[in-house]
Amino acid sequence: MECCRVLMIAIVALMLLFPVTDAWGIDGHDIVCNIAQSRLNEAAADIVQELLPKSAENDLGSVCSWADQVKFRYHWSSPLHYVNTPDVCNYNFERDCKDDNGEQGRCVAGAVQNYTKQLLTIGSNEGSSYNLTEALLFYSHFMGDIHQPLHAGFASDKGGNTIEVHWYTRKQNLHHIWDDNIIETAEERYYNSNVAGMIDAIQKNITTEWADQVKDWESCSYTDTTCADVIPRLLQIQIKRLVLCRYASEGIQAACDWAYKGAAEGSVLKDEYFLSRLPIVNTRLAQAGVRLAAILNHYFK
Ligand SMILES: *[C@@H]1O[C@H](CO)[C@@H](O)[C@H](O)[C@H]1NC(C)=O
Ligand SMILES: *[C@@H]1O[C@H](CO)[C@@H](O)[C@H](O)[C@H]1NC(C)=O
Ligand SMILES: *[C@@H]1O[C@H](CO)[C@@H](O)[C@H](O)[C@H]1NC(C)=O
């Protein structure tokens, strides 16, 4: 009996020491939503507070992975987390944004557009036909996903899911490395395994290192010449397609330049890959958070 109790305690202790991390993973989304919530104007912050479930205690980050948890219950939502190209490094809405049945718009870019449009109906009669809490949670999650380079990847390898590599000594697929492992390794190495430390470090760079670029990231959410007259036609679906084209285009470009490069089947990815890709991950997390907030701030002033 005594032996078993000792064993039990040892097992529990080990579980506490090495928690199963499923950290964009949980931490990636948490980072994006934390950055976003801290940048909201008063009106947008109020609306977010009102829409969040009470249990979230006004912490958007805590429910930013809700969309992953309901993937099986809401089976229809699983194609909305990504977009794949026919193995080319550019994105095209007509060609790429559809599900396996070929239904147009059913991809992550279409989903961001769908849920921003629903959020815009808040306070109107039409608004009552949507569950706007779900719209906020989906929108916040998909703004994160669309910025994860391999959520805009190649169709043939399902965004890196079928590419088996090693992350240091562990077997892993390439998609998972970009969802979780790069972030996890950064947290372990630089932030005491603490997501809050990583959020602070990215926030700091948003206000210093990247301050100039941040203005560009923000404006591309709704103005910017390349995003073409978004303001006057904001309420029309077609416009946001243009803007979102840019997010997804950036994604597939980063996937080609950084994620796929040097990561063929069977590769062993170590410091060289980690250290050169981490800045890309940090920047994409920052862009996602800044843009998530900028769109809400623009809608709700
Ligand atoms: C739009 O949102 C509705 C409500 O959640 C959902 O049923 C539909 O599948 C969504 N479509 C896209 C493309 O996101
Ligand atoms: C809206 O969605 C949330 C999350 O799924 C759910 O808890 C809530 O009951 C829904 N609200 C309504 C009015 O259906
Ligand atoms: C912040 O910027 C500095 C200087 O470019 C860089 O060394 C550091 O890795 C960056 N940190 C994050 C979290 O982006």
UniProtKB/TrEMBL annotation:
Signal peptide: 1-23
Pfam families per UniProt: S1-P1_nuclease (PF02265)
One MF term in the entry's GO annotations: metal ion binding
EC number: 3.1.30.1
Known catalytic reactions: Endonucleolytic cleavage to 5'-phosphomononucleotide and 5'-phosphooligonucleotide end-products
Entries under Gene3D superfamilies matching the protein: P1 Nuclease (1.10.575.10)
InterPro entries to which the protein is assigned, alphabetical: PLipase_C/P1_nuclease_dom_sf, S1/P1nuclease
SUPFAM superfamilies: Phospholipase C/P1 nuclease
Keywords for the protein's UniProt record, in alphabetical order: Disulfide bond, Endonuclease, Glycoprotein, Hydrolase, Metal-binding, Nuclease, Signal
GO biological process: DNA catabolic process
PANTHER family in UniProt: ENDONUCLEASE 2 (PTHR33146:SF27), ENDONUCLEASE 4 (PTHR33146)
Quaternary structure, from the entry: Monomer.
Family indicated by similarity: Belongs to the nuclease type I family.
Protein name: Aspergillus nuclease S1
Lineage: Eukaryota, Viridiplantae, Streptophyta, Embryophyta, Tracheophyta
